[in-house]
Amino acid sequence: MRLEGVSRVEQRLDMVLAPERYEMKVSEVCQMWGVSRQTFYEWRRRYEDEGLSGLENRSSRPRAPAGQIPRDMERRIVEMRRDHRRWGARRIRAELRRKGLAAPARSTIERVLVRNGLLPPVKPPTPPPQRFVRERPNELWQLDAKEWALVDGSLVQIFSCIDDCSRYCGATRAFAELSSAAAIATFDDAVAELGLPEATLADRGNVFTGRTTRSVAAFERHVWSYGVYSINGRPYHPQTQGKVERFHRTLIEWLEDNGPYCTLEDLNLSLIAFRHHYNHDRPNQALDDATPAEVRARLPHAGPDPALAAKRCRRESLRTTKANGTIEYASWTINLGVQWARTKVRIVDFGHTIEIRDSAGDLIREVKPDLTRTYLGNGRPKGRHKL
Questions:
Q1: 302: Cβ contacts below 8 Å, ≥ 6 apart
Q2: Cα separation of 281 and 299, whole Å?
Q3: Distance between CA 213 and CA 232 in Å, rounded?
Q4: Residue among 48, 24, 26, 46 at smallest CA distance from 36
Q5: Rounded CA gap, 200 and 333, in Å?
Q6: Is 88 exposed, middle or buried (0-12, 13-18, 19+ CB in 10 A)?
Q7: Can you give the C-alpha Rg of the chain in angstroms?
């Protein structure tokens, strides 16, 4: 019950005195004033202990809010963020723990950063995406290329290779152009650092795969020659190579902070420093704040699987020969002989050898890939032949 022109203190005083003044039951008083019995007894206790001042409004804020961190810890968090502007709450927590300090929860650190204007308000959490990760180092490597501009505006390509399980960067190097030779060199650098993997994963760019032309690319032939099979993500779906994509985001932040770079050599020197920092010094949130080198050191390593490679290191396609008995495949013109003119054939490419079979599955010809040539003949010289 509220009376116009009467203050809240006077109303509460009238309520707590009503049982004696009007000989009313407490239940009747509570019903009339629209309060619970607990509220009535609380107001009466405060009136008996403090008089009229006890009936005034009070803040419900606790004197010592739960979860409030010490001021020196908050000051340390703010200083770490200001000294390292790219560090988020998880990175700051990891660094505090590595220093042997009792680090607050990530959400608490986020609130500290928001409260001090160092972080925008945190958005409501979204459902985490479904992720995959291999169980052992060298089970799968992810490769990708990233464009970067030098001081003079010229564009170079940074190729990187990281291990799917440990996130260890086996290689990252800048090249003057996007090419299969650069992809092969990056793979070889990673092999020298980590040993051979079981498989590689890359997008469907022509430097990594010949799927778009229904052939085998030079990178695939090179990888397959080691007994390593290759996998390619779906078109326009970079999430499949999400780990190397995320690696490149961290790399770009490093280059922005430590650049610019005038020459390809300067850039590659910086990439060497970054790779060591990323593998050995930087705690990785996806690895529970361990470094890639620590994870790689404590797990058994995988290697090439001959059985899987035998099944997967091949690509088949259908072609129709021309009137002169030749077919166009990859960068070659392959001559089968005029007797096979305008015939549908199946090409089975194993990387180290190419089999050409007829519709019944019988072998017509087997050729060895030779990247130095564009014409693979039938073993006989060109032109008319005497009978």
A1: 134, 136, 137, 138, 139, 197, 198
A2: 19
A3: 14
A4: 26
A5: 29
A6: middle
A7: 36
AA letter at 301: H
Residues 159/143, Cβ–Cβ less than 8 Å: yes
Residue where the block lists tokens 């305008």: 342
Burial of 289 (0-12, 13-18, 19+ CB in 10 A): middle
Q: Which of 180, 168, 159 is nearest to 140 (CA)?
A: 168
Dist CA 77 CA 112 (whole Å):
8
Instruction: Please report, as a single letter, which amino acid is at residue 376.
Output: L
Give the residue among 206, 229, 232 at the shortest CA–CA distance from 330.
Answer: 206
- Report yes or no: 299 and 165 within 8 Å, Cβ to Cβ: yes
pTM: 0.69
Tokens of 208: 């990594």
Instruction: List per-residue pLDDT tens for the chain, 387 residues long.
Output: 544 445 788 888 888 888 888 788 888 888 888 889 998 998 888 888 888 888 888 777 666 566 578 889 999 999 999 999 999 999 999 999 999 998 999 989 999 999 999 988 867 777 766 678 899 999 999 999 999 999 999 999 999 999 999 999 999 999 999 999 999 999 999 999 999 999 999 999 999 999 988 899 999 999 999 999 999 998 888 888 889 999 999 999 999 999 899 999 999 999 999 999 999 999 998 898 999 999 999 999 999 999 999 999 999 999 999 999 999 998 899 999 999 999 999 999 999 999 999 989 999 999 998 888 888 876 565 555 444
Query: Which tokens is 299 given?
Result: 């797990």
* CA gap 212, 346 in Å, rounded: 17
